[in-house]
Amino acid sequence: MDEARVIPLHGDDQPPRRRGSGRRPAAVPNAEASIHSLSAAEPVRPPAGDVPGWERRVADGLAFLRRRIAGDYAVDDFGFDADLTENVVIPLFKPLYDRWFRVEVNGIDNVPSDGGALLVANHAGGLWALDAAMTAVAVHEEHPAGRHLRMLGADLVFGTPGVGALARKTGATLACNPDAERLLAAGELVGVWPEGFKGIGKPYRDRYRLQRFGRGGFVHAALKSGVPIVPVSVVGSEEIHPVLANAKTLARILDLPYFPITPTFPWLGPLGLVPLPSKWYIQFGEPIPTAGLGQDHADDPVVLFELTDRVRETIQSTLNRLLVQRRSVWR
User: Fold this and answer.
1) Whether CATH 3.40.1130.10 fits 94-325
2) Boundaries of every domain in the chain
3) pLDDT per residue over 31-44, tens digit each?
4) Which end of the chain is more exposed for a tag (fewer CB within 10 A), N or C?
5) Closest by Cα among 315, 318, 330 to 123
6) Phi and psi at residue 6, to the nearest 5°
């Protein structure tokens, strides 16, 4: 059995992928293949209208299993497995995206069809940081190019058995400047949530009020790479697990950044882990260019502060507008 191919990193262009196509990754002709050159021409199939949906799904599933058994799939230097992500992970999240949260997306055209860009979003969730996953699904499913969002995650994610390995396979990597700059230089879409655990675990009374955006590390990465910053505003994620209190003693014992107490957790046991079905809106804002500033400004604290503050204010003002327009948390 052949082993999965590992693709070294550099920045060749990638032809757009059709949304939800579930294509088989291309064979890699040499060791210099791009980190994101993972798609190939689709196999010849009858027109969709001539094949029942269930038969097509079965055929796609069998083709996927054959590729996995034969090792006929590719991963990049970060462990990203596009074949697994497109055929298993995204389909698993789609019911949450379509039916549970009923996500509505606006401004998807502000996400570039090719080349690198940094997507910066607000962060919430209480028990689960599902806003990152839903944003990644939105980018892949709603964008005409069907692009993948390479998410930057905290140490805790990659230190959790099972979770860290799966995160790597879906394209996530550690939230550090070297990894972010490397991905951006390769023309990837990179997602960052600067509020971190302070955003996820903030009390419900502070919902949709952005916490501190760190020290502007994401701005430094964008300036060094000369890519635009796309502000992303998510409404609905604050209500899936409203945090009423933080059990700090338990958090210290379990070595966690916080231990949330919600209306359902821990009172209902495992059922308390189920997110409430709030209605979600994701707004992709107009890109903020950085190429004109030049790499020399990447270490200028004044430029970093001003640009960080601009991104934060853009997201906050968009959240405020969306909240005013929202008629109901649930509908």
Assistant:
1) yes
2) 5-77, 94-325
3) 334 444 433 334 44
4) N
5) 315
6) -105, 125
